[in-house]
What does this fold into?
Amino acid sequence: MDQRKPVTTARIKKMKEDGIPISVVTAYDYPSARLADEAGVDVILVGDSLGNVVLGYESTIPVTLEDMIYHTRAVARAANSAFVVTDLPFMTYHGGIDETLNAVARIMREGAKAVKLEGGEEIAPTVEKIVKAGVPVMGHVGLTPQSLYQIGGYKVQGKSAAQAEKLLRDAKALEQAGAFSIVLELVTEEVAAYMTRELSIPTIGIGSGAGCDGQVLVFHDLLQYAPRRNRKSSSKRTPTSANKSAKALPGM
Ligand code: KIV
It folds into this structure.
């Protein structure tokens, strides 16, 4: 039987203060969530990466709120102590605040304990309203896959001074809005480490080097479980930042 106490946002923030690395793994169904929970991970993320690794899409953009609700329901049944965070999918938090809060409410009713949103300064007012409604928010800056076509591909972020300054401004705006932690995806190692020092809330890196307060891995990357895409034109594995940054590993 799992004797661990349920992980809370207070515990996650304290881990940063105490220099204890924060482990985050994605899960999308009951068995993967059970494995992650029993392994003792701190946070299970029901990521919209399920679009890539479970549903076979090219990106996270086709993932719907109904998809996230369905997968959160299964994950929440398995998570005894891990803190469950669910992604708000593409375009569910850019309209009116009522629509956003309705999406948040539907996800939380399935057993999520927090939601994750992609974006910086421009979504800070929305983050503030969700936090004021009593729901913890995880931010996500750097490579934000829901804006893939605006960014122009899975590119490392923060290479220029201007980009690095903007990343820090975005992260500070999220911190100010009440986010309890922030994912840094595909940010240069130096900038991610600098942001981690500058922020009072934990940073969770993916493809962003070892200087973050925690790391998040996509379950299928961790297990090397993602198949090659079933397309004549491509021999690539399903793209996620972790498998992109792990290219140097043997067999990738
Ligand atoms: O959807 C997801 O799995 C994510 C992680 C890559 C951070 O957002």
